[in-house]
Structure formats: C-alpha cells, structure tokens
Amino acid sequence: MSESVRTIKNVEIYMATMRWSGDLTIPASLRVSDFLNNDTRRFLNLIQATVVHLSDTIQNISYALEEVVINKSGVIAVVLRIEPARGHAIPSYRVPKTPHRVMLYAPPFCMSGDVYHTAVGRPIDTLEHQKNEFLVMTDVTLWQIAARTPLGTGIEFAAVNRQWIAAMHSLPQKERQQASSFWNVPRKPGG
Question: Is the pTM of this model over 0.90?
C-alpha cells in the first residue's frame, strides 16, 4: 500500500551546476524539514519539473520533465518559494529557536539569512551539534558567487545540506534592516 503524499508548490533544488524547479511530493505526515532530515529517505521527487544549467554568466533552460527523482546527497540547498500571509506563521515550517543572522558559503552559492539555535548557543554549536543533515534558514538571500547577482531575495524557507557548507560567519544585526548583500559584507582595508 502506498503512503499518502502532499505536494509542496514552487520548490527550487540547487545543485553545483543546476537548479531544479517544480513541485515537491513528500509524505503527508511529515514537515518539509523532517522529510529532508530523514536519513532513510535518500531521494526527492519533483513533479512538473524544469532544470536550468547555472553558468557564471547565463542561465539556460535545458528541459522540462513530468517527474524527476533527485538524490539528496548532491543537493546543496532546497528553497521553498512560499508567500505566507503577513503576520501569520506557517506551523509546518516553524523553527522554535533563536534566530541568528549569518552569511553561509556553500560553493558555488552563498546565502545570508537567519539560522536557529538555542538562546545560549553559538553559530559553531549550530553546525557542530546539529544531528540533522539539512540546516534550516529563513529570510534568505541566495547568490551564485561567480555571477554576483542574487538568484532570490526574501526567501522565507531554505534548507542547506550541511555537507556542502564550506564556511559560515555572523552578520551584524543592522544587516537585518537592509537588503542582504554578499558584496556589503565588511572587509579588511584593501580587501
């Protein structure tokens, strides 16, 4: 007997050289983050999918597929393009911890956004002590590093595969007040 599934609309799956877009099917009983972090489920199923090859200068639509199965081990980040009603939390995506603004590097991408840890935790604790494969971020801006242009801003929910994280650093709280920008990160003089 087949398990009951639900469809999450407008999902983007980022890999090293491509972006898959479509609708993600997951078991009806699981939240997206629980599904991604379930180590017995190694594959993602997208329906009505398109694939875009990401190069340094151009994005070309390669083809569209009715359905595609993607191995999670090659996934750098999963982005949900959701539009929640302002002032209303989305219970199935809620993360009950303290937000901390960071810049995260998962080449060939980087992201600024909020990661979550306990109130007394440090960003290192977020990465070292988390048992989950995917790190949840909210209020995300996503860049392709070489292109220097955002692939998305104001992303409400993204999940980043921890095996692809090369580095992470804190951003000042004032960064929250302005548009996230990879190129506005404080640099040393002459850098």
Answer: no
Question: In this structure, what CATH number is given to the domain that contains residue 40?
Answer: 2.30.30.100
Tell the burial category of 133 from Cβ atoms under 10 Å away from its Cβ (0-12, 13-18, 19+). Answer: middle
- CA 170 centroid distance within chain: 17
Which residues are within 8 A (CB) of 128 and not within 5 positions of it... i.e. 6 or more apart? Answer: none
Residues 66 and 101 in one domain: no
**Does residue 148 belong to any structural domain of this protein?**
yes
Residues of the chain with pLDDT under 70: 1, 55-61, 83-97, 118-123, 173-191
Q: Give the rounded percent of residues in the chain with a pLDDT score beyond 70.
A: 73
- Give the Cβ contact number of residue 179 at 10 Å: 11
